[in-house]
Amino acid sequence: MAAERRVAALSRHLTSSSDVSLSAKVDLRDFAAEDVYLFLTRDNVELRAKMLDFLKDPMYRPNYYLSLMEFRDLTLRRLQKFVDQKFFSTFDYLNDPLRFMAGLETLASVDYSLCIKAGVHFTLCGGTIAKLGTEKHHKTFLPRLDTLELPGCFGMTELGHGSNVMGIETQATYDEETGEFVINTPTDTASKFWIGGAAQHGKVCTVFAQLTVRGKWEGPHVFVVRLRDDSGQPMPGVRIQDNGPKAGLNGVDNGQLWFYNVRVPRDALLDRYSSVAPDGTYSSPIPSVAQRFGTMVGGLTTGRMLIAQGAIDASKIGVAIALRYACARPQFNGKCIMEYLTHQRRLLPALATTYAMQLQSLRLKDLYMAKRPEDAKTIHVVSSGLKAGATWHRVEILQACRECCGGQGFLAANKIGPMKNDMDVDVTFEGDNTVMMQQVAKALLDTAAKKPPRPQMPSMEGASVTDLTLLAALLRFREDSLTAEVAAAIGRAAKVAAPGGKKAAVAAAADAYEDNLDTVLQLGWAHVDRITFEGFVEEVNTRAPREARPVLSLLATLYGLTRVERALAFYLASGAASGAAAAAVRAGVNGACAALSADGGWAALRLAEGFGIPDHCLEAPIAFDWRQIGSTVTM
Amino acid sequence: MAAERRVAALSRHLTSSSDVSLSAKVDLRDFAAEDVYLFLTRDNVELRAKMLDFLKDPMYRPNYYLSLMEFRDLTLRRLQKFVDQKFFSTFDYLNDPLRFMAGLETLASVDYSLCIKAGVHFTLCGGTIAKLGTEKHHKTFLPRLDTLELPGCFGMTELGHGSNVMGIETQATYDEETGEFVINTPTDTASKFWIGGAAQHGKVCTVFAQLTVRGKWEGPHVFVVRLRDDSGQPMPGVRIQDNGPKAGLNGVDNGQLWFYNVRVPRDALLDRYSSVAPDGTYSSPIPSVAQRFGTMVGGLTTGRMLIAQGAIDASKIGVAIALRYACARPQFNGKCIMEYLTHQRRLLPALATTYAMQLQSLRLKDLYMAKRPEDAKTIHVVSSGLKAGATWHRVEILQACRECCGGQGFLAANKIGPMKNDMDVDVTFEGDNTVMMQQVAKALLDTAAKKPPRPQMPSMEGASVTDLTLLAALLRFREDSLTAEVAAAIGRAAKVAAPGGKKAAVAAAADAYEDNLDTVLQLGWAHVDRITFEGFVEEVNTRAPREARPVLSLLATLYGLTRVERALAFYLASGAASGAAAAAVRAGVNGACAALSADGGWAALRLAEGFGIPDHCLEAPIAFDWRQIGSTVTM
Ligand SMILES: Cc1cc2nc3c(=O)[nH]c(=O)nc-3n(C[C@H](O)[C@H](O)[C@H](O)COP(=O)(O)OP(=O)(O)OC[C@H]3O[C@@H](n4cnc5c(N)ncnc54)[C@H](O)[C@@H]3O)c2cc1C
Ligand SMILES: Cc1cc2nc3c(=O)[nH]c(=O)nc-3n(C[C@H](O)[C@H](O)[C@H](O)COP(=O)(O)OP(=O)(O)OC[C@H]3O[C@@H](n4cnc5c(N)ncnc54)[C@H](O)[C@@H]3O)c2cc1C
Asked: Domain Acyl-CoA oxidase C-terminal: where (chains A, B) (predicted)?
């Protein structure tokens, strides 16, 4: 009823005859959730199914009654049992990255602590050894990581140094006499902080430290350092302090580390990009310290991709639960809460955004797997943007889902709340989002410094706001405009300061950048919005199952419209949109919401089914028969 | 440096000469935090200090290591010890509401579980008995609540019925034979759900049930029902099920209740607004069921005010911690993170908003204390709006604060994260926010149906965007425009349907309302924005300490500007703002941020000091010397 009314209202609002397209799309054909699943999940389908089946084991059911220490203990046991199945190997980090990622991704649908505990061990520790180490390291460590005989840690962050890794203070000095590196923590701010696994279980750690050889500083390098001996006792010179309880993710035992003259053999240096000869001769194919370090950490994209994927998968679970409850829960006059426009506007853009991010993640994996050296910068930009975008979207999506479930959204058994708590970390770790979005913007500004973009303002007059080409043009226009705006501000500042010399000009440019940091962040977002929308549309056009194309194209429309709506002030201020166009955008969003939630919301529910979340991962009682909560369903 | 640059940039951006006002304000005089504290905290100052002092007791220090059951147990013991001090009494609910509220508010600065456990007992149970009961109830129950001899519960919500309380299914039937009411839970959806204290400690409960007397339904009424006997055993016919773990607030033992032919004496009915004579004669001064119920629950504003105040106080703590860390934490090039515009834009509007909400809460208390019958509706609207506004702001503010602290924001010891988890409940309980905002909007639409507002579009041309009168006019314009827009849509629909009769017109009006529910929510927000801004300005002008006036007036400007900026699309679409005006708004926000964070952020820090949070409530290591974390400060 309400849906049909709004579809009708929509045709009144839209600005041209071509706008019937949306109402046409409302006539959504039936489509199979399995087809959509295969559209969204393209690799290791069988392996994933096998893992999910294994994770039915009662040991992996959520238990919210545990104390901190019990939960950590359970997480280790869960990981050991999982590892024993040998679904993948640390060697896959290099040999079969998709399999490697599929393995870790699957864990997130069960428990984020387990996923991160495994991620630190396999990706951050194992992956670093695989990528930055050479054969001797692989042979020595990877098989023992594979069995969890050596639980691994990743020691990059320090109490005083997070986002700015170049600024770490931990020292590694080569001692030619003994052929060893001596690792030291010179101050408390140099203590390694947040090191996953360090508090209790970790035995080996990839430690980032400033290398000094023959009195010369060579920048940050990575060393494999034993934290504990085989029996679990801390190694001599290693001081360990538990980070204690966190706001979530308490299955992971994060800890703080100090090194006091810890001696490690020359082979402890991961020497793929630089090496130290026994006599202390330092050599590296990359001469600049900054570039060398950039290459090292640049290779560690997998971690960032996993965090993005974890956020996307959590969004899937949240949206699926909230949609199922919304379509089954009446509150006033027997009307299901899904029928409220406010509810639709909270959940359906969340659904569309989750699809957009998932497809973007697939595209990034494709790019990554193609292994073309010329793509390195794009991979860095896209992975930074996706990481920040997907995790910030997740914050908003899970919050909306939790609120949409009313009180039930706060019940641990219904999963959204605990997931929200556990995952809150993802916006600041593996690259703080504010810093990540700047990485994206900086890349655009670098390009613009050479060749400034010429923003093309699309005309909305007489056009339909649901036209995918128009939406793409709008998103492109915003990105180009913001790029041009910030680039111009920087250029102007540099020019004004130029008479004072090159250094003054560079400083003025940096100041101008900082003065526009608010716009810089928006620019990062604008880029993410544009590429994810374009990707969504292209994926639907080229790879979507035929029956699902109308509904997926409607979903892409909704995604594009919500991104445009969010930035409406920009479009209005720039003159791209009139008041009427703004009204049409609103009507477009409302119309798409109506279409997706009509007839009991079957289309939205089916799309959520397309995520392919098995019942034992969906878990939440409200996703099944909420009327039974507490009577037959016990929490 | 950056601050001064931005202030300069601001003067370039602003559209008229009067805009120097902001740069003038930048010259902020010194002011005393204590004066500001007394501006923000006007009642029971000594009592609050005494309570806070008492709460230094180690028993009240946070402990994040506890299991669910241990935490519940500790919360009860904490409450008992607090109650033993007799800081206030349940009788104060009627006799000295400010003292009553001050008592409960103070608990929130220590632990939200403790605050809510006390709130359910004193406000929801005790307050209901005080307000809806008569002397016999007061005498019987209030003294035993005061000592916690009878831990009290509040039984309104049912598994199937939350926002729509009128729809509850629990039955109370009067039995003239025995002079008793018989309470029954006819279905599982009628089971009382979420009842705080019911799972373990509650002994008495104010139960909402549909009353039937002599076969006639009289609507929801409230009965005092014993859940457990003095020894703690469930009463005959009362079935209790633990709700289990939640996403936070785990010190409160929420539970589910079924009543099977539970017989309570005739006196169990809280009979202030209606009574049943021994022979079953029902009488009430309020004839209509809906109005009668409205009067009953309308009296329970205190709970809503407390939830709003709790959200405000949590925002204070979050903002204070994040600001102190931001001004002490360098990350790149020795630059404190507070110097980043992005950081300022995350924290300073949060600071301003927290002030705005706090002042609004004071104003609401004034209105409440004046006890003028003609204010009843205003109190309902303002309390609903403040509850929704303050709690939704809190979500955003605490999220921003947590993210601004990077990894440290996720450490439990730093308090923001656990507070965020615990308080997440506040957006849906004590009136779901989406429903509350509709209460606000409906009141405006009711008035508009009689006398539609005539929106006055203020002219921004040639005006300064930092002019407080202009900002007020802009916020008023938005509220009036949205009111007029929705009212017109409803009016049109009713008119079209009118030929079909009155019923059809009413139905069409209701449909039109639902079709515009997105705008209705914005209208609720627009009202909250407008009154909180006006209140802020008025408080500053009339009651602010003289030295602090410039800085507070700058803060009010920032608040108004951020609310206008958030709704910029509206102002642009309506023609009130041009692109240049939009740029001026941005520059105004950035300029105010610069002024507040200049010189090491002393003004912002001082304003946070004005919240008057004692060190033992601030708690977080990052609010003190973060460099010591883990070395001398142990978590
Ligand atoms: C649960 C958890 C597990 C972790 N596990 C590991 C691990 O196993 N190994 C490991 O090495 N690390 C780990 N980390 C550390 C994590 O990677 C860091 O927390 C992260 O890099 C951010 O650094 P920081 O916390 O020092 O924040 P900071 O870098 O100090 O940032 C603080 C704030 O300042 C802002 N800011 C900083 N720089 C800028 C800028 N240039 N412009 C604008 N704003 C800025 C940020 O946005 C943020 O809001 C973990 C962290 C957590 C919380
Ligand atoms: C920790 C906790 C403690 C509590 N303690 C108590 C207690 O002690 N005693 C007690 O009686 N209750 C208690 N409650 C219950 C609480 O008051 C309810 O959860 C609240 O009233 C919301 O009701 P609901 O959960 O049934 O959500 P619903 O009313 O079912 O709402 C679900 C969703 O639908 C949306 N929705 C509903 N109606 C509309 C509408 N008309 N328009 C648009 N959207 C709509 C809401 O916004 C929400 O997102 C507690 C709840 C919690 C979580």
From this structure: 510-623
